[in-house]
Amino acid sequence: MATLILSAIGTAVAGPVGAIVGAVAGSMVDRALFAPSLRREGARLGDLSVQSSAYGAAVPLVYGRARVAGNVIWSTGLIESRHESRTRVGGKGGGSVTNVTYSYAASFAVALSARQILAVRRVWADGKLIRDSDGHLTVGGRMRLHGGSERQPPDPLMQAALGLAMTPAHRGLAYVVFEQLELAEFANRIPVLTFEVVADDGPALALGALLADLGARAGVGLD
Q: Mind giving me the DSSP string for 79-109?
């Protein structure tokens, strides 16, 4: 519309040259007023629930050093974050494109051993190393270890989600809590996790001590 109006005004004022100038100016006004603004929305999950472990799943007794598969005992479900960015297109007076993308993370607890342990070294997710022996995660998030002592307190993240009175301390159970673990590398799901666990006795545990511990748990004395 502005192109036609300014072209007519330019013709009346300066003839053909004025018409050209008016048309150019009008075109710029039209682009500024009526330029399209596009919106692009990325893939988004419809279901934010996660698969957790079933009741009665076995938790190993770790002696010495072992690589064990974890058992998910608690999760917040998937946590969705929305990211929006805007890009100008078409130069001066052009429109814009708004890009909306989504990312996902999860906070969850994984049981490792039904007896106290000393440390967790390396961690693998879907077979890929995501934590080295020095404790560095290669993906976003944090990992916190509860060694399984009989005096360990409840995890603070679980307390915030479940409430102070409803959060078990899981005393006697060694477990880790992942906080906001980023899931983009794992198809936006909790991956299959395995852990290098070091147990209250070390690799040189004597056979007699192991048998004594198992016997005590079964109520059998080994005098």
A: EEEEEEEEEE-SSTT--EEEEEEEEEEEEEE
